[in-house]
Amino acid sequence: MKIRTSKFSMAAITVMLAMGIGVTTVPVFANGPTVDPPFVDLTLAPGGDETIAKTVFVPAFPPKLDVCLVVDLSGSYLDDLENIKADMPVIWDLVKDEVADVRWCLASFVDFPFSPWGDASFGDYAYSLDQDLTPDKLTFTNAVDAMLTRNGVDTPESQYEALIELAAGFGNDVPPIGPSPGDIPPGQNADWRDDATRIVILTTDAPFHVAGDSGPFPYPGPTAADTTDVLVDAGIKVIGLKAPGAGTELDDLAAATGGSVQPTSSTSEDIAEAILLALEELDYDITGMPEGCEPLDISLDPEVFEDVMGPTYVEFLETIAVPFGVTDVEEVCCEVTFFADDTPLGQQVVCVTVQWEVDVDIKPGSFPNAINLKRTTGVIPVAILGSEFFDVTWIDVATLKFGATGFDQVPAHDLTAPGVYFDHMQDVNYDGFMDLVSHYVIDGTGIMPGDTEAFITGKTLDGINFVGSDSILTRN
Question: Helix 78-98 to helix 10-18 angle, to the nearest 10 degrees?
Fold first, then answer.
């Protein structure tokens, strides 16, 4: 279910109210950590896994935004254009208040300058990139102020051509062969950033010309399907500002790209409100991607939250696993990045220590496991218990250590001499699996009066760390 709330700060709401824009709700979600928990530190054995609930905050706006305003400059748009020019500085500020890293670009269209579509004597054109994406407000608003309406003879215009060029910059060499007033040079696409949310705001009061429409030659623009495919492949969402006279094409594009449509009046006097409402209604697919996590297996359930409208939270179940065959890695630290579409929302750091957790029985056959600290030269027998998951023949006995902390520990007596190792193999708990018993001199274990637990550590023959512990009762 989508939760609709206002996405604007109180300062922005104040400005909106001053402009006469209605505001009926206030933010419900406070901006907390983007990813919670932001850090995961685990110890897993080969073949082990752990599942963690991972909460991701989806803000009202993505943290990085590229927005291109595409304006219909046919003659009927004269009154609309003046309102666009008047409102754009305020719109810039309102969006900038919400998105620190935002860039705007400006493009325009009329129609191909061939009768009956357009008129070359009025300077009609099918597409122009008037200002590439820029973070500078003055640069952008100056470009907006410089726009002039043209003609556009018949009712439909070249919206599809403008959109496909803005997205991909194919260029269009229209008839006749060679230089022509209707040609569109290639490379006039916006300089979209790979990791920004990409939005086109198209404002028009006319239906769209499509490939093959009648004229002096078949209309040279793209089809609706080709335009939609290019926009989707480029990850561009279309926001349609639909003035009276526009057809259903804006609705189809918005639906196909995950955008929205907002109606405007015949003069676009409500252009600011329409743009803000359209940005408010955008939704995103939220995904997570592990980076540099091999040989770990990290998976998310679900793989994607579709059509999420912020501000809200989504919760993934993240399973972190060490494949059973991993033998030569002691620790892996990596990142899981969460995205709104292609825009990073935040990262989680995952660190996994690859280590067996073995079962241990100190002083097998006795309980409590009493240790007389006065007998400093005495020895403590410790059994590492085998199981269907851990075979004690995997142990590198030269690495065994035992003590109070798991760090400063005394080595085992020598089990490497011929025949000694197997003499210490026995099934001490009668479960059908062989166990390994080793012995440790009390002096040097670091065990102190009042300690209640002791640890054994070591490595397998494959170099995998393991640790185990059991309770103790000290006597002094």
Answer: 160
CB 342 within 8 A of CB 199: no
Residues in the chain: 476
Q: What is the pLDDT confidence band of residue 245, given thresholds at 50, 70 and 90?
A: confident
Distance CA 373, CA 365 (A): 20
Q: Please state, in angstroms and as integers, the Cα–Cα distance from residue 3 to each residue in 60, 214, 384, 444, following that order.
A: 11, 46, 55, 63
Name the amino acid, one letter, at 262: Q
Residues near 403 by Cβ (< 8 Å), separated by ≥ 6?
409, 410, 440, 444, 445, 446, 447, 454, 455
Residues paired with residue 356 on neighbouring β-strands, in sequence order: 466
Kindly tell me if the per-residue pLDDT of 295 is higher than 60: yes
Do 256 and 405 share a structural domain? no
Cα separation, 464 vs 395, whole angstroms: 9
Whether residues 377 and 250 share a domain: the answer is no
| CA-based max dimension of the chain | 108
What is the domain count for the chain? 2
Which residues have a Cβ under 8 Å from the Cβ of 468 and sit 6 or more positions away? 357, 358, 359, 360, 384, 455, 456
**Shortest CA distance to 349 belongs to which of 425, 263, 291?**
291
Contact 186, 145 (CB under 8 A): no
Domain that holds residue 68: 61-269
Q: Write down which residue in 223, 239, 269 finishes a domain.
A: 269
Q: Please, are residues 426 and 434 in contact by the beta-carbon 8 Å criterion? A: yes
Distance CA(104)–CA(94), nearest Å, equals 13
- Nearest-CA neighbor of 238 among 223, 251, 219? 251
Kindly state the average pLDDT of the residues 211-232: 96
Collapse the DSSP code of 123 into the 3-class scheme (helix H, G, I; strand E, B; otherwise coil) and give the result: coil
- Whether the Cβ atoms of residue 42 and residue 323 lie closer than 8 Å to each other: no
Residue pair 460/398 in contact (Cβ under 8 Å)? The answer is no
pLDDT above 50: residue 165: yes
CB count, 10 Å around CB of 448? 10
Q: 106 and 99 in contact (C-beta within 8 Å)? A: no
Q: Is residue 312 part of a domain?
A: no
Q: pLDDT for 365-419, tens place per residue? A: 888 999 999 888 888 999 999 999 899 999 998 899 999 876 667 787 777 766 6
Q: DSSP letter for 76, please.
A: G
CATH code of the domain in which 94 resides = 3.40.50.410
The reply to whether 179 falls in a domain is yes
Closest by CA to 199, choosing from 275, 110, 144, 140, is 275
Query: Is 234 within 8 Å of 167 (Cβ atoms)?
Result: yes
How is residue 358 annotated by DSSP?
-
